[in-house]
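Write out the 3D structure for:
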Amino acid sequence: MNFQQLRIIRETVRQNFNLTEVGNALFTSQSGVSKHIKDLEDELGVALFVRKGKRFLGLTEPGKELLTIVERMLIDAGNVKRLAEQFSQRDAGQLTIATTHTQARYALPRVVAAFREAFPRVHLVLHQASPDELVRLLLAGEADLGIATEAIADVPELVSFPYYSWHHSVVAPPSHPLHRTALTLDSLASYPIVTYHQGFTGRARIDRAFAEAGLTPDIVMAALDADVIKAYVELGLGVGIVASMAVDPTRDTALKVVEGPVLFGHQTARIAVRRGHYLRSFAYRFISLCSPALEEGVVRSALDPARV
């Protein structure tokens, strides 16, 4: 048994049992992939995959149990490497953060600037992703930290921490009649709306609020990020619903926040780490720069396997 065989087992599942794609992902041939799998099955004395002819259809029961162990072994192998780097290159290395456009654009610039000043030898990678893709990157060990509002709090393999609270704001050109009426769900629903795509930046909260009020809003456009939403609101396509931190009065001079109550509740952006993932010291520092309350001891305690 060797690590290449374990990587092939994991990658075969990730590539939906397509051995050609497995070979491409691991820079080897399909025949090499097949041989590694056969050698491992022969060594273990059990079939790991359900087959139909030469096609792989899924995992057998032993294969399913083995996959859990393989995932853990490969995570620990990566942890060993990071542990060695922690002591041999304490202030150098790479920190990969998977985050949404909203966080990368509006919440993280100050943190990134402070981190770069403190750790100039650390290569910081910001991987912009949807919430679901962000979870996949964390679970695959391809990102050290994930920052988002959606998805991460409900994944048992992740430990997440509150970053900051935010709410949606309604924006419209300064001359829009909504500025001269009371802001309610009813008044808002009487105009075309431009807001986020499903699954992004609290869209589920928006839909739920209108549904609970018995209203069907006219959402004429849905976008992945606030900059696009604001651009089309400026063009007069509709009223915008965006994350509050995405509105800057000094920059968004063609728009104005509609004053009124918070219609869609408060939400919490969170920072997530996969359970068992070894974090370098500079990763803990990045987290504390996001939120001083999340000092290293607090995060380490929450990540302690004994607490699971």
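The two ends are 30 Å apart (CA to CA).
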